[in-house]
Amino acid sequence: MTSLKQVLNKKNPFDSAEQEAMLNLWRTSDLAQNRFGKLFREQGITASQYNVLRILRGAGRPLPCLEIAGQMIQAVPAITRVIDQMDAGQLIRRRRCEEDRRVVYVELTPKGRRLLQKLDGPVLELHNRMLRQLSTSEVRQLSTLLDRARSELE
Question: CATH no. for residue 108?
Fold first, then answer.
């Protein structure tokens, strides 16, 4: 196992344990995003588009754009552009709310559902491969610790 200090070829110690942990988190996140990004690009979508598809499937019903934006793993400043691209690719369908024309509902299309099903196995496999050196207990502990750290930021 290579430490972050070795990866960064850092001669001096980190300024604090918190700094080392945050830089470690950023580095790990970047590597994970690159791996998942490659998987999604192979299917012609972005990580944000995959996230929208996952949210819609999980909801099991059409959702307003703002509700989708609030559930994204990564904040997307231009959710409308993501939705536009997905609509053009026929992965989702949009429709205006009859009661309030300002609200736009987004629903998963059969094509979007098929793409998600195609990605289910490879995504799960990548999750497992990236964390296989940790025990189930350690993975749960990692999630708990990250939840606690994130609570300060949300």
Answer: 1.10.10.10
C-alpha span between 68 and 4 (Å, rounded): 35
Tell me if 55 is assigned to some domain: yes
Q: Is residue 54 assigned to a domain?
A: yes
Q: Which domain holds residue 92?
A: 46-139
Q: Which two tokens stand for residue 145?
A: 């610790």
**Alpha-carbon distance values, 11 to 5, 6, 15, 16 (Å):** 8, 9, 12, 15
* Predicted confidence (pLDDT) per residue in 80-93, tens digit: 899 999 999 999 99
pLDDT digits over 104-138, tens only? 899 999 999 999 999 999 999 999 999 999 999 99
This prediction has a pTM of 0.89
Number of domains in the chain: 1
